[in-house]
């Protein structure tokens, strides 16, 4: 499908000529309403004329497009955005493109040369973007482009002022990308090369003529489209080529020993190692960067030998097993799209054993049913296709034998009920790679979107037999851990038989592995006959929980996690045992005929932190006045899940005899703490000290930070689970 900008309002600054003009024409040709801004200055920023912008507006209108001109300088950021609002009522996309040059060798650069360049490029981009920000935030959509330059990235003789401003814009974009993410405002930076009046003084005429601006515009359009999830990226673009840039950091060297001074001589002597880019890492966040410093502190503190760098050791052993975690972790698989209709939903429901025998099942089997729905566990299907389509084999650092890959665990979380038809886009990232000795575990995080909306999140845990021994990391804070069921009789048990053809039916939903149908393949894998798909048993268990505890209402289904313990043969009966604990359901699945446990540590339900808060609520009821005396403060909590706000709580240990309530804070919290559901659980279990969590960026605090000292009183002493 072609990319349309119908209904979108775009501001392109400096669009009276060169690259900006090309963007304006391209956006308009695809349906956008365009504000063509240009001051009409000369290349050094002198003079002013409305002719440049008017001409481009005329060109657009002559082709039937929608455009208005604006002649303000980008230094009047608000006025540019106001033009968009006046003419078209909104602003969706800002391309910061206006620019001038005042090239001088460094010592000859005057104050004016410096200031003008910073004002137009850096300050202008700041002012225009800031003016657009709240409009984008309120409509939960925005795309911002910053125009940097190779001169900034690499330096260029005679362009000290310009290169400083251009790389300043990259710094600005890096932070806007972070602050905008949760509002669906994405900010990316391009370093273009194109023939224009800015480059005609430095490039030969035939190069100016052949490096056409139309070879740059397609990247800008893609980055500004609602389908594009890229955020915080930096791209070089020109001549019909596009490449992405990122930071690389050498493994580096620890030069300090406990209770000995660190010396410049040690730096000199280890210089080659410090600068050696073998097995370099690619940090992408400030938390990753900070975490390595915290690591060094604890290594030095624990008396680790000089230079004994566990990351480096891991990487050098990696070449033997084909797995290189430093290369693989963080890699994205190619984006995959999955189109389906009600047919696939019904086929899946039949695949996981639904039947018209049960009148309740009709809403999943008949597209004419008034409540026709897609089973929540269908959420694994589109994301699985992103991995199966060969995506995993394209990841650098994962050179593995795919016949040795077993599906170990599965986690699925839904943010809204799955549509019964449409196109879903999945983006998979290697979240972590663990060494379990006998094998490697690859954790794959897959986000699946419908349009721009996140529909579900899957974590696949894949076990690669025999690929261990490459490193030191056995566990990951990114893993969704399975939980054992409570030590009591189950609250509900459902027994359901699979048919002889269950695997033959289930595979039509997209898992074509011959292991599940072809006897000779099954024999090669060491099985007597073809086995049922683990995800098919998972589907059985999921729908048992849905029926037993959620009245078959998919909107009440939040998450499910299972560990695959043993295979099931088609034709055997599955016995699902369920325990309700708070709003979570623990699940264990057995083969009835043999008693073998096939799914363990499973659960379905909401946030783990909900249970802790429920417990804290009970404690406050019992011991409230005592706690108020000890703590005397109001704590606001924001629990996040996959980077999104998932729940809010207020623990009031200041007023009356204390209280807990869920939802936004209606009294002023003395301190507000933001932490992910998983990290919260680590803090509660005492595995993660609050101070360390704060330092590593896992726990964020605003307000009276000193109150963090009282956190342990609340969480450790009173939330014993
Ligand atoms: P251009 O000179 O054709 O376009 C820049 C436009 O910005 C001009 O029409 C100018 O009137 C306008 N402008 C200048 N000051 C302004 C202000 N204060 N307010 C509003 N408009 C103003 O140059 P070109 O090559 O199209 O450059 C576009 C952007 O790309 C610039 O930011 C430039 O620094 C950047 N760039 C271009 C490269 C190239 O190879 N052409 C290389 C690297 C970066």
UniProtKB/TrEMBL annotation:
Its main location: other. Pathway: Lipid metabolism; fatty acid beta-oxidation. GO terms for cellular component: peroxisome. It comes from the Eukaryota. CDD domains: HDE_HSD (cd03448), hydroxyacyl-CoA-like_DH_SDR_c-like (cd05353). GO terms for molecular function: 3-hydroxyacyl-CoA dehydratase activity; isomerase activity; oxidoreductase activity. It is found in: Peroxisome. Keywords: Fatty acid metabolism, Isomerase, Lipid metabolism, Lyase, NAD, Oxidoreductase, Peroxisome. Pfam families: adh_short (PF00106), MaoC_dehydratas (PF01575), MFE-2_hydrat-2_N (PF22622), SCP2 (PF02036). InterPro entries: HotDog_dom_sf, KR_dom, MaoC-like_dom, MFE-2_N, NAD(P)-bd_dom_sf, Peroxisomal_Beta-Oxidation, Sc_DH/Rdtase_CS, SCP2_sterol-bd_dom. This is Peroxisomal multifunctional enzyme type 2.
């Amino acid at each position: 499908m072609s990319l349309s900008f119908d209904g979108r309002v775009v501001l392109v600054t400096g669009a009276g000529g060169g690259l900006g003009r090309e963007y304006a024409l391209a956006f308009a040709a695809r349906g956008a309403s365009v504000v063509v801004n240009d001051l009409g200055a000369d290349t050094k920023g002198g003079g002013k004329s409305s002719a440049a912008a008017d001409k481009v507006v005329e060109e657009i209108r002559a082709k039937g497009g929608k455009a208005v001109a604006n002649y303000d300088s980008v230094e009047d950021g608000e006025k540019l955005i106001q033009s968009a609002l006046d003419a078209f009522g909104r602003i969706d996309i800002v391309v910061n493109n206006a620019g001038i040059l005042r090239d001088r060798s460094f010592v000859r650069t005057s104050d004016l040369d410096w200031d003008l360049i910073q004002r137009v490029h850096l300050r202008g981009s700041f002012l225009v973007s800031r003016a657009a920000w709240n409009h984008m935030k309120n409509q939960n959509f925005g795309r911002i482009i910053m125009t940097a330059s190779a001169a900034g990235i690499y330096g260029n003789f005679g362009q000290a002022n310009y290169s400083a401003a251009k790389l300043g814009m990259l710094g600005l974009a890096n932070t806007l990308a972070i602050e905008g993410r949760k509002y669906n405002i994405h900010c990316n930076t391009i370093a273009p090369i194109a023939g224009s009046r800015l480059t005609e003084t430095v490039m030969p005429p035939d190069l100016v003529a052949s490096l056409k601006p139309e070879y740059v515009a397609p990247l800008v359009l893609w980055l500004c489209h609602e389908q594009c999830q890229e955020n915080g990226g930096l791209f070089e673009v020109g001549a019909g080529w596009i490449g992405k840039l990122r930071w690389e950091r050498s493994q580096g060297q620890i030069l300090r020993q406990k209770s000995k001074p660190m010396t410049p001589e040690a730096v000199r002597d280890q210089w080659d190692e410090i600068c050696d880019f073998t097995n370099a890492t690619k940090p992408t966040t400030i938390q990753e960067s900070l975490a390595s410093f915290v690591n060094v502190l604890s290594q030095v503190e624990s008396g680790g030998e000089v230079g004994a760098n566990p990351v480096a050791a891991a990487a050098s052993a990696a070449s033997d097993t084909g797995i290189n975690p430093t290369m693989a972790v963080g890699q994205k698989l190619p984006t995959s799209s999955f189109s389906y209709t009600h047919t696939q939903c019904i086929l899946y429901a039949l695949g996981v054993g639904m039947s018209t025998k049960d009148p309740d099942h009709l809403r999943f089997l008949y597209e004419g049913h008034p409540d026709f729905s897609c089973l929540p566990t269908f959420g694994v299907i589109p994301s699985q296709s992103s991995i199966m389509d060969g995506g995993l084999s394209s990841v650098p650092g994962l050179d593995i034998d795919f016949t040795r890959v077993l599906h170990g665990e599965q986690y699925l979380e839904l943010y809204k009920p799955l549509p019964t038809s449409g196109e879903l886009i999945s983006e998979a990232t290697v979240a972590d790679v663990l060494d379990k000795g006998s094998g490697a575990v690859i954790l794959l995080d897959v986000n699946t979107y419908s349009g721009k909306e996140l529909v579900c999140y899957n974590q696949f845990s894949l076990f690669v037999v025999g690929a261990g021994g490459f490193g030191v990391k056995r566990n990951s804070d990114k893993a969704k851990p399975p939980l054992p069921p409570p030590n009591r009789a189950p609250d509900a048990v459902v027994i359901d038989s699979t048919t002889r053809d269950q695997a033959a039916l289930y595979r039509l939903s997209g898992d074509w592995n011959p292991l599940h149908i072809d006897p000779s393949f099954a024999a090669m894998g060491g099985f007597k006959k073809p086995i049922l798909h683990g995800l098919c048993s998972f589907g059985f268990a999921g729908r048992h929980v849905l029926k037993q505890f959620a009245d078959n209402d998919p909107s009440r289904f939040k998450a499910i996690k299972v560990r695959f313990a043993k295979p099931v043969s088609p034709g055997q009966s599955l016995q699902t045992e369920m325990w309700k604990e708070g709003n979570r359901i623990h699940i264990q699945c057995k083969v009835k005929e043999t008693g073998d446990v096939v799914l363990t540590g499973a659960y379905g339900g909401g946030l783990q932190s909900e249970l802790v808060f429920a417990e804290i609520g009970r404690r406050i009821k019992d011991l409230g006045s005592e706690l108020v005396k000890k703590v005397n403060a109001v704590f606001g909590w924001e629990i996040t899940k996959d980077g999104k706000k998932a729940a809010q709580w207020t623990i009031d240990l200041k007023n009356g005899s204390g209280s807990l309530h869920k939802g936004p804070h209606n009294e002023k919290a003395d301190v507000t703490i933001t932490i992910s559901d998983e990290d919260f659980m680590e803090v509660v279990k005492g595995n993660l000290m609050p101070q360390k969590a704060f330092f590593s960026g896992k726990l964020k605090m605003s307000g009276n930070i000193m109150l963090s000292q009282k956190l342990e009183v609340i969480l450790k002493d009173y939330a014993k689970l």
